[in-house]
Amino acid sequence: MKIHPAKVMLWLLVVSSGWAPVLANTAQTAAEEAEKEGVFTGYWGESFWTLIWFTVLLIVLWKFAWKPILAGLRSREEHIERQIAEAEKRRQEAEQVLQDYRAQLMDAERQGHEIITRRIQEAEEKAREIQAQTQKEMERIRLRMEADLERERAEAERQLWEQAAVIVKKLGREVFGKVLDEGDNQKLIQEAIERLREVEQGQS
Amino acid sequence: MPIDSFLGLVNASGQPMEEVASKTLFVLKAGAYKIPFTNHMFMIMLSALVLMVLLPLGARRPGLVPHGFRNVIETICVFLREDVARPFLKERTDRYIPFLWTIFFFILTLNLLGIVPLDRIFWLITGRPNWGGAATANLYVTGTLAVFSFLLFHIAGILEKGLWKYLATLAPKVPWPILPFMFVMELLSSFVRMFSLAIRLFANILAGHILLAVLLGFILIYKNFMVASASIIVTTLMSLLELFVAFLQAYIFTFLTTIFIGFSISEEH
Q1: Of A1, A141, B168, B265, which has the fewest CB atoms closer than 10 Å, so is most exposed?
Q2: Which parts of chain A are beta strand (E)?
Q3: Domain ranges, residue A189
């Protein structure tokens, strides 16, 4: 409920109007009484005068001083409230941005970790593949070398046996003085080979 | 300087009571009636006129940040609004704050102008005595202000709650046999509040001015330079105290009025 100054003034006027007869009755004698000195000097006219001037002052100040001051104070309060609300909004926005950045940072860290882990896994996989390929290649080389070796050995053995046959053939011609025919040669060779194999098996 | 002039300058008659007494300046004749116009009436009018000129002048400069005189006024106004009225009147503060501001500034101006030796200055210029004085050292003046405060807090209660509800809530919630007694007690206490407001302001200002007059009176009694020096020093210090009392009493009157309004408009009262 809004209290209008006029309403209050009306109340005051009603109350103060009751003083008027008192004032009128006492005014004549008050002039002499006012001259008397003492703690309680004064008279009702001063009360009435105070009330009138206070009422006038209240009305004038209400209109010309308190209204602008109150309006100024309210507008400043509203301005400060707006500023605070704005600052709060900005703070919340900044908080949100900060949270977004933090989330992005964490996401980037997570992605980085994932990338690093994936790359490490890939590298390990690659290393394993390379290692396996190398081992396979080495095995293949080893097998090929073993095959080559076996082939060389067999060739050497074959050549050895051929040489041995030629030597036996020469020995036979020198020892027996005749040239052994093909059947003899074959027989002697076969016997020599058999003996050599037995010797060889005995050694191993 | 002749002794009469000195007496006029310092203390019109050497009687401390004359310092605070209401003195007739001239008599207005209204038909058969004679209405005396006293020095306190003059001071009341002067104070009101000063405020009616200064405060609107100070308040008329708009702007978000106050400067100069408006800053002084607003500092006091904001203090009274936020630290005195708001704790008691809450959301109704702005409804009553113009009354409280007016009471405060009016009493403060009366107190401050009472300290200024206007009667001496006026006497020096015009040769007419008694055009000054402390109006708040007059019980009829402080009584009227207290009556205004009394009416204000009762009217506030009635306007906020309605007459019957206000009368019903005047007494606290007590068993019905003692309710009439409590109602009468509460009614009496509201009158006591009014008298206490009037007497407190009146007595403080009266005592201060009598004390200053007595201290200066020592010079006239002893007519001694040592006494005069001591008297002037103590009077100066007491005047500073009176300056503080001027603010303090205006504040107390406003503060108590605020509390009484708060009591009247609160639901639990």
Answers
A1: A1
A2: none
A3: 154-203
